[in-house]
Design brief:
Number of helices: 12
Strand content: under 5%
Shape: globular
Length: about 240
């Protein structure tokens, strides 16, 4: 089966944000070439991506895996599961997940992964198969999350920050400053402090019925736009 990619750049960014593997390392020259030729990104944005590309390509695979886990799996505020930043553990998250899975299936897209549907690399892989205007609108709805992640990664001197700056540029719009500030207000636990991590990941109170504090308008708009009739495309599989 073949994939009908419409946006190789989104596919490249999806791969960069995926868990490091030796296959990913081997693909870095091609991925770097795609990003270097992307005119929608500024020269500065393309330049800022280079350190991460070089690190992934030449780094020790075990060090790369450890750093990835410390950043994205052990820190809730850096989670690559987008709805984590919107719904947390509220009941609304389940409904949003179901809607997103239905959107994928309507587009003929079946993720070949065990990750949750709101995992950013999965979403980017899907958007890489969609018309650019549709993909850009969806990215724009999540720009505030990208900006918060970029800021947190910058504070940690992580080269991954450049990926989120690039995604914000591809979205083509400025993030809402107030929404970004609310996301950045969340405590940012040290991934090496296990007690603090346990407190952050402590199970949230179960609420029956809608959570009045959940349901970010931007993500609701994203799902609504993606669910509109006429968006489906022929079946697409991994490239």
């Amino acid at each position: 089966m073949t994939t009908h990619l419409k946006d190789r750049t989104l596919k490249a960014l999806s791969l960069i944000l995926s868990y490091p593997t030796r296959d990913l390392q081997a693909a870095m020259p091609e991925i770097g070439g795609v990003l270097a030729a992307e005119t929608r990104l500024t020269t500065a944005a393309r330049h800022d991506l280079r350190p991460l590309l070089e690190t992934i390509a030449a780094g020790d695979i075990y060090d790369l895996e450890e750093q990835y886990v410390l950043l994205f799996d052990r820190s809730r505020t850096l989670s690559l599961n987008l709805f984590e930043h919107v719904h947390g553990e509220s009941r609304d998250r389940g409904g949003a997940m179901v809607s997103l899975v239905e959107t994928y299936r309507d587009g003929g897209f079946e993720p070949a992964t065990s990750e949750l549907p709101d995992h950013l690399p999965v979403l980017l892989e899907f958007l890489a198969t969609r018309p650019r205007d549709e993909a850009r609108a969806t990215l724009a709805d999540a720009t505030h999350i990208f900006e918060a992640l970029r800021e947190r990664l910058t504070r940690r001197d992580s080269a991954y920050a450049a990926v989120f700056a690039a995604l914000a540029q591809l979205a083509g719009g400025a993030a809402d400053a107030e929404t970004v500030a609310r996301l950045l207000d969340a405590p940012d636990a040290d991934p090496d402090n296990l007690a603090a991590l346990d407190a952050v990941w402590e199970e949230s109170e179960v609420r029956f019925g809608p959570d009045p504090n959940a349901g970010c308008p931007q993500v609701r708009d994203m799902l609504t736009r993606m669910d509109k009739p006429g968006k489906a495309t022929p079946h697409m599989a991994a490239e």
